Amino acid sequence: MNNYSDVELETAHKHSLANRKTIQKSEQCSCFYCCCVFPATMVEQWLSEANGQGDTGWCPRCGVDSLIGDASGIPLTPSFLAAMNGKYFDADCAIEADELKPTSLHSS
Ligand SMILES: [Zn+2]
Which of 47, 60, 97, 105 has the fewest CB atoms found within 10 Å of its own CB? Predict the structure, then answer.
């Protein structure tokens, strides 16, 4: 069950495409395939969209192009990611609260 409408989920899904500029403005980025949240600077692989719309980021953890940056205004909460996963992948999305905190991957 989720509390999100199809419109909300579809809007969020659009942010997973040609999202390089958004991700580069984001602090955090989430993947709704493997349901992780990580610093947006970890996204290093990009796929150019054929129609010239821009580049789409790939998840550094699972390699799927299902990323949403927080600069999009989309709430990167566990329940929202689970709802996205259920709509678009229906995969196992075992979210642990700890996984949704920024990890120590920042190497400042
Ligand atoms: Zn992922």
Answer: 97
